[in-house]
Amino acid sequence: MGLSDHRRSAVDVVRCAVVTVSDTRTEASDASGRAIVELLEEAGHLVESKAIVRDEPEQVRTMVGAHLGRLDAVITTGGTGIASRDTTCDALEQLLHKQLDGFGELFRALSYGEIGSAAMLSRATAGVAHGTVVFVLPGSEKAVRLAMTKLIVPELGHVVYELRK
Fold it and tell me: Structure pTM?
């Protein structure tokens, strides 16, 4: 089966959760979370949950963990840098059974084209836990839109199809 066959088999409607990880963002100031929701809904996917949690590892793990095995995808934004409060990747690493290394590699390559060598500071990642794909994105709205439009939205239905096999 070729790539075009796989894409034809893609799931049309993916059930998603969006989690913003931030010590300062509110519903009113969460442009990145809103962008994820907007792009998912424009693609025909269903956002069943949206939340903001503090950048505390246990809170992040608990919020994401509540969706594993229940929804098809969880997309987080925030906490992927190298500052001391950036702990999203570390918190979720324990939950992921399989890493999707290509996601982070491709995201940083695309970011390099836009922001240059600062792209190496992102620890954006993705993986699978309990049949749910988890994408861990930076907090920047521009970075979120890049990841969503170039990587996640084009492949999300295909990823979920593969997970359901």
Answer: 0.96
